[in-house]
Structure formats: structure tokens, C-alpha cells
Design goal:
single chain; about 625 residues; alpha/beta; elongated; disordered N terminus; binds adenosine-5'-diphosphate; binds magnesium ion
Amino acid sequence: MFGAYRETRWALSVAERNLAAVTAELPDSPQGRSAARTLSRLWPYVRPVRARLATAAVVAVLASCVGLVVPLVLKAIVDGPVAGHDPGGVWLGALGLLLLGIAEAALFGFRRWLVARPLAGVEAELRRDLFGRLQRLPTSFHDRWASGQLLSRATTDLMMLRMFLAFPLTFLLVNGVTIVVGVAMLVIQNWGLGLLLLVPVAPLVPICTYFERRYSTAARQAQDQIGDVTTLVEESVLGIRVVKGFGRHRSQARVFRARAKELRATELRKAHLLAWIWGVITTLPELAIVTALVLGTIRVADGDLSAGTLVAFLSTALALRWPVESIGFLLAMCQEAAAAAERYFEVMDERPEEDVPAPAPAAEAVARGTRDGLRFSGVGFRFPDAPPGAPALLDGVDLHVRPGETVALVGATGCGKTTLTHLVPRLYELSAGRITLDGEDITAMPRERLRSLVAVAFEEPTLFSASIAENVLMGAGAEAGTEDLARALDVAQAGFVKDLPHAEHTEVGEQGLSLSGGQRQRLALARAVVGSPPFLVLDDPLSALDVATEAAVEAALRRVLEGTTALVVAHRPSTVQLADRVALLSGGRITAVGTHHQLLRENAEYAWLMSGAERALEGQA
Ligand SMILES: Nc1ncnc2c1ncn2[C@@H]1O[C@H](COP(=O)(O)OP(=O)(O)O)[C@@H](O)[C@H]1O
Ligand SMILES: [Mg+2]
């Protein structure tokens, strides 16, 4: 019973978190927007292919008008050869109709050919920009957004936008023109019957408006729900080990079914709305046609109207059926595309990391001249999503890491060590104070330069689906070669690489999950040192290593760290001893700095933290 309770609670907490992620990023009001205004933002992407799209639209209008000539030929056949009993004339007329049909089909085919390639290009361009933006958005953005929401925007939504450009955009115009021309032809042929057909158009306008409003809300909801489902699938696949290890597949499946059911309900609501508008749009003209047929037949019988005119009239009306009927789903596609565009631009409108212009060379030279090391002055930080009343996580951190010095950062779990290391390469922006590298404020230098000066190895060693060499060399400029790679692997004691099937060219698989935690950590360390950066920030880089390997890495690291200014987060006394000095982070500030032995003697908190680590190690041994 307890198991079932725990399982339910776990499933609920997952659902809750996902829900929070969605509500956090929903726009203020999906209602108050106009589909046309949102869609018009696509113009910069469509501009380069506008000539082709316009040509395609003209071709489609032509094709449609060719279709409207058919009734006129019919009229000529009925009033001419048919009335005059001339079989030859009928065959000739039939041949004309066939040619018209072929022309119409060829024109439509030509249109498809015109738009297919450029629109695929537009979609690719949109996708490229989205990906570029995602790479440049700050870490705090990615903390807020579920990855599945971003993934679905880059796939499903962009596909909807391409479909919109291919169909509704052209066909709303083409069908509009066809309807106007067709109605004009009807009125010219017989204005009485023509006006009769126009009667049902009036109620269609408010009906369509109502439909659009309802449908746009449903479309937006469906697309957001697709994002949620994507997130869930992604998390379950990436976390498959945890899911399996804890026997969570059933509760995961339950959460998924609930999500899928919500999506299905929304899709059904869309289908329902579409069926309803389709029904109305089809019925009204049909009624008008029947009325016209009855009245027309009476007038032909009375001799007021030629049979040919009635045939032409009715076949024109029938030719207009499709353009009228299609309005329902074209409008639906427009609403879906508007929702997709809105979701696309929600990401594109987020502010990317801003960069300062490169500093004047003179100022840079002065700044570089003073070797000052890494300096934190009054650094304060709170997470953007922290509750309003909560105290700042970091509050007045002062620390000076002298040039060439290695300082170990020690503190209780959750005191903000990792966060402090993230501030140096500006993964998060400081709330107060400043950080300087050799006297130069990190906010005053272009990010690219900052990140080439500072190398980092994170607590969670992240690897990409690429070879080991590519993963490690990511930490260096383009000029780095095999020697740098070998040296970095040596420092990180990553000798295991040689034993892999293709040595350093072995692919590590998604997230490097085919390697052990300690192996991944050593590759991440190699990535940090491969570029011989002047500043190094390591977040507990040796935590997953056994004592012997750790000692070997340390010996090698000591050589590297000689010329480097380094800040190393550490938990174990062995890692701490790597450092020249130790800084204790407590209560959001640095409360003590000194050598390991000094602090052991003088600082009770430090002694307590270290003795805990020692005890744990002894327990392991
Ligand atoms: N992205 C985030 N958004 C909000 N709070 C966070 C985020 N990341 C970490 N925190 C919180 O900040 C605190 C410090 O985290 P961290 O710097 O990782 O601690 P440490 O590395 O010292 O163990 C923790 O209480 C954690 O819950
Ligand atoms: Mg940490």
C-alpha cells in the first residue's frame, strides 16, 4: 500500500512540476491577439521568396478561372449542338472541356512546383534562427523553459507555418478571387438567381468570426499540450535508467496517458468545431443551389430562360462550392499557424545575452598589463525565480585569487558554491558587486573573450554525441591539435581512452552515458585544461574518482595549475590540499581564508566539514 502511495505521490510531483513549467511560460492573453498581426511577423522570412509565392498565387488564380470557363463551354454545347442535334459539335465541345481540365491540372501542378522548394527554405531558415536564439539565450531562460516545449516549437510548429505558407495563404486569396469572379458571372448570367445565391453569405460572416475565436484558443492549447507530451517523452527517455531502476515505468505511463488524454480532448474539441463550421458552410450554399435549381427550372419551363443558361448557371454555382467549403479548414489552418507563430516568436522575443562592444585596444592593454588574478568584490546573487522574501543566496562575497594561485572553495551542501562558479563565465548575471579578471570587469568584456579566458568543469560532466576527441577539444580554440589532446587526457589521467575500441575517436553516445561517472568526469576535466586557459574554475572535479586515481590526477593537475589562476570547489581533504589556500563559503559570504591546516585549527565550521569528510572516507576504506 505504501508503495502505491509513494508511486502516486511521485507521479503527482512530476505532473505538478510540468504544469508549473507550462503555466510559467503561457502568454498573458491568448485572446487579445490578432492572427493576422502575428502571422505578418513572418514577412522577413517570406520576403526573399515573395516573387515566387506571388507567381504561384497568380498561377493558382488562373487555374481557378480556367475552371470557371467550363460552365460557359457547357452553355455553348447545350444551346448549340445539343439543341441543334449535331453530334460532331458535341464531340468538339467535349474535347474543349478535356483541354480545359488538362490546363487546370497542369497549372495547379506548376504552382506546387513553384512553392515547394522556397517554402522548405523558409522553414529551414526559421528553424536555424530558432536554434541560434536558443544557443544565445541566458541560462536563466533555460531554467524556466521545459525542453519539450522548445523541441515542439522547433518541429511541429514550424511545420504548421510551412503548411500555412503553402496552402491557406495562397488559397484564401485564390478562393476569394474565384468566388468574386464566379459570383460576378452568376449575376451577369441572371441577376435574379445570382442575388438569390448571395443571401446565405451574410450569416456566414459572423459564424466564421465566432468559429475563429473558439478555434484559435483550442489550437494554442493543443500545441502547448504537444509540448508537454514531448517534455514527458524526452525526460522518460533520458531518465530511462532511473525509471527502470525504481520500477517507475507504470507511473510514468500513467502520467503520460493523462497528458495524452488531455491532448486528445483538445484535438477532439478542434475536430468538433471544424465539423460544425464545415457543416454550416456546406449546408447554406447547398440550400441556395437547390432553391435556384427549382426557380430556374420553372423559368426554363415558362420559356423565360434558355436551358443552356440554366446549365451554365448551376455548373458555375457548383464550381464555387469547393472554394466556399474550403474556407472553414483554411481558416482553421490559419489559426493553427497563428498559434504556431505566436509560440515561435515567444522564444524569439526573449532577450539573448547582451554583449558589450569590444573594448578599445589601449584600455585592454592596460588591463592585461596588471596581473591581478581573479577577484570577487561584494558579489551578491539571487536566482530570478527565487521567492520574493527569500534572502539572497550570495551576499557580499569578497575573495581574491592571486595570479597563479589555486584557491579551494569549501562549504556545506547547498551554500552556493556551484552558483558562485557559474558566475565567473557569466552563466548567470551578478545581482550585486563585481568580478574581475586581471583587473578587468567581466561584464565589460565580450562574452567570447571572457569564455576563452576562463575554462570550467562542472559538477555534472556533460558530454555530447560526438567522439571523445571532439568532446575534449571543445574546450580549446580551433588551433588545438592532437598534442594538446594527448596532454589534456594525460593531466586528467584518462588513460582508459586508449583501451576503447577506436581510442579517442570512439563515439561516446548521447550524453556520454556509455562511460562511467568517473570517466566522464575525467573527460570534462580534460576539456577544461586542454586550452591551457589562464583562469580555471573547477566544480568538484574529482568527486567520482577513487582515491588512487584522484592522487594521480592531482599530481598532474598541480603541474597544470602552476601557471593558472584557479578556483576549485572541493569536498575532500585530499582535493583541498591541492590548493594554496582555502576559502570557506558560509551564509552567502566568505567567512574564512587560509591554508588547510590554519583553518583546521582556527575555524570550527571548517574543521567540522573536513572531519565529516574524513570520517566518510574512513568509513569507505
Ligand atoms: N536554477 C536555479 N534556480 C533556483 N534555485 C537554484 C537553482 N540552482 C540552484 N538553486 C538553489 O541554490 C542553492 C545553492 O545551490 P548550489 O550553488 O548548487 O549549491 P552547492 O554547489 O554549494 O551545493 C540551492 O539551495 C539550490 O536549491
Ligand atoms: Mg555544487
